[in-house]
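Hi, here's the filled form for the chain we discussed.

Project: internal
Contact: R.S.
Residues: 149
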Amino acid sequence: MTIIYWISIFISTFVAMEAMAWFTHKYVMHGFLWSLHEDHHHKKHKSWWERNDLFFVFYALVSISCFLLWRYDIAWYGLPIGLGILAYGITYFLVHDIFIHQRFKLFRNANNWYARGVRRAHKVHHKHLGKNKGECFGMLFVPFKYFKQ
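And the returned structure, exactly as it came back:
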């Protein structure tokens, strides 16, 4: 029965991270921490690293903290939560940074209906270069209207 709890917590955490990513993007990145996120919309730098990458570091620290809670027998559910956050972070990195923004030249030829929809939705967001009016949505739950042929 314990494995059912662990799997349920892992999946719930992964799904909750999609909501957390939407909230963070809309109200934190395009809000009071726009100064960190702005270089993601305005490529005024030549570096591979962006200040925006600090958000990845933050969530990595949260995930590591959960692993430590589990490791030191403070909270048994720290491991599935930490793994759920880690799995979401890896998925986000693959979809957003590698697939969409091509920070590494992988998945360039992906051209199925889902790939086109995700790219189209992301372009809508990036057409607004300012702090306001950028449509925000998750990475996995993109509005259906972007999946047109």
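Let me know if anything looks off before we file it.
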